[in-house]
Design a protein that fits this description.
The protein has 12 helices and no strands. It is mainly α and 228 residues long. It has 2 domains: 2-157, no CATH class; 179-228, no CATH class. Helix 3 runs antiparallel to helix 4 and helix 10 (183-200) runs antiparallel to helix 11 (205-219). The N and C termini lie far apart (47 Å). The relative contact order is 0.15.
Length: 228
Amino acid sequence: MRLRALKAAFPKTLPVMAGYLFLAVGFGVLLRKSGLGAAWALLMSTGIYAGAMQYVTIDLFLSGAAPLESALMTLMVNARHLFYSISMSEKYRNTGWMKPYLALALTDETYALLAADEVPEGVDSRWYYFFVSLLNHGYWVIGSVLGSQLGQMLPFDLAGIEFAMTALFVVIFVEHWQKKAARIPALVGFVASVLCLILFGPGGFTLLAMPAICGVLLLLRGRLALGQ
């Protein structure tokens, strides 16, 4: 039963592997450039396992951020996972000892696979959820450690590698902008972030921009629901 679940899960995770390895290698390289080695890459990717937040964590480490600031930043960046967990609670109801790990491993991509995809016929749903989560997690850990090792061996200047995650979000923004229904949330996020950056500077604008964006989107939820 476990082998059948693994065989069913693996093909579903291949698109995630392609993206995770690329982003995780970038994280590992940046971590090495910041003076933190492969052990840190392994520890952070195993225990934190949150792509954007791991990039942010490097800056928090290097700037000596206070625990409260780090906790608030983590909450703001990963708040969406609270809603992921709520929507997956029924599917994870009878997963037993797997449930804590499934909660840890519920990333954007894993949620997309498990929330939208039905479990193949004849496959135990618990093990299917587990292996999809574990495989995706494994791709991220492997990519991070590999990136850390590459960062030590690459002979050229790595200046600018920290822009990798920013570039990803720019691509996501452009993709949203191309869809008419998603333009208002994209514009709200952009304008709120720019205003907070101007008013409060680069040191702490994120903590203020995130609740501002959420507040405006809540006010506009009726219009957004109508697709206007």
